[in-house]
Amino acid sequence: MSHLQADRLVLAALGESPLEEPEAHHVDTCPTCSRELASLRAVADVGRGTEGLDSLPPPPPRVWQAISDELALGEPVPSLAARRRPRWQVPALAAAAAAIVAALGAVLVFWQLEPAPAPVACAGPPVELDALPGTPAGAHGSACVTEGAERTLRVEADGMPATTDAVYTVWLIDPTSLSDPRGIRLQALGNMGDQPDADFPVPGSIDLSTYNVIDISREPNDGDATHSGDSLLRGQLP
Amino acid sequence: MSAGGSAARSTREVPGGNGEVARAFRDGDEAALRKAYDQYGPAVLYLAARSMASTADSEDIVQATFVAAWLGRQTFDPDRGSLLAWLLGIARRKIVDHYRWTARQGRLSGDVPESGRASEPAPDQVVDQLVVADELARLPADQRRVLRLAFYDDLTHPQIAAATGMPLGTVKSHLRRGMARLRSRWEVDGVAPAG
What ipTM was assigned to the predicted interfaces of this complex? Predict the structure, then answer.
């Protein structure tokens, strides 16, 4: 007889209708069909063992935190340093341009200095970051998501107490996790620098409609990358 | 591994390849690492928990796996298998390393291993089940539905037709197509496919 139909082999592999003669004899003597049947049976065996595997619990948040710490993920310092143009560079560039203009003055009738890239504007009105209880009076802030290709959070914080042994870190928090016994879901964006404002790229994995609380905390320089619990300012994106 | 499976593979994308995340991962996009972790961390933890004695050890395996995966991401070849299978392969090696280490510690301190489990690698069958479960989750809903009824509820195809209201021919065709997809994924990503 000819090879067994694919449907027939699948049903046999699933064990619902045993092969009868002459099918059984054919499969016994046909290497192609017997290999097909063996392979489908093996898949069916594996398949029967998959129940419940589509809804496995995720590892607890501390595991990701440990991975993130070990790999120093999202360390904002280098990227911020590269992104921010130090103030001295602007006059330096202008001076260099002027020198070129002087050198080529006979040739160049007109030289337009390339304008420094204008800061990207906020995509909407900034949200206020309010002082939490215990924060020194006068501290306040605001934040907005900027326009432009890269998703960036602009944070401004004024009146923060001067500190030498700690930094102010900006976090995004999923507020629905604040009472979650498995732990609070949050993401560090980076540290505020010398200026009252700073721009932080938002990792692509962060959904800002979920991680919509902006938190600025005081983080002692103790090597512990987790949130200190000492929050000063907090606000919520719309 | 059947010759038919190999020929079919060379002409189309690797099953379970979810190309974009996999490529972004290899290219060093930290967001892709997080996505891969969210998607496959549960499977890696499950594999670890099946092999390790304590929750803390299982979590250490998950951490070691994703750290090694990220540091070695350039060795990941999306054309040779799925990201999940690659991660599970790393996890299996981490589990073996762990037991080698504890066995050595045991020898150094003169302890006798408490059970035979300590020298056993993770069961290959668990890896097979995890990749097939991943493929099952990617099937069109109707194919997934009939296969679940066949696998978990042990229904025959007339019973599946009665339970779902689908015509018999449709049930058979979903079973055939779904099984074919699971099989080709397993042939690429499984640990020791027979045949």
Answer: 0.83
